Amino acid sequence: MPHENPTPDPRDVSVARAEIRDDEAKRMIGMLAAGELPVRAAQWVADGVDDETAHELAAATGRPLEERVVLLEQLAASLGLGFASTREARAHHGQSVIASMTAASAAGDSLSFSNSFSDTIEESVRDSISRLFPRRKK
Are 57 and 43 in contact (CB under 8 A)? Predict the structure, then answer.
């Protein structure tokens, strides 16, 4: 029976930083699967992300999903990997999806991208309408 390695093999720290930024974008647009965050954080620590919050997130297996999400947000902020707005996070996510598309994954990836893109368009239209037609005061 193969022995399971509890410590992941390290990769370049830039890979971990890119993944943290991608996950932060997903968090901001409501597409993050928080259940895998402790495993992902353990990989980031192995990759060289030496941050107290990364270590805490890696050990957060028994903690509620909401707490894991808050830890990710704190980690991204402490490393300067956050986003100024939801729109910026959506743009980053769209670029990541397009960059990672392969022939096999294109259908699912394009659906995910189109959903986040349509959310951005809807938000822009609502903003424009509210500026053009402000609510009347009673």
Answer: no
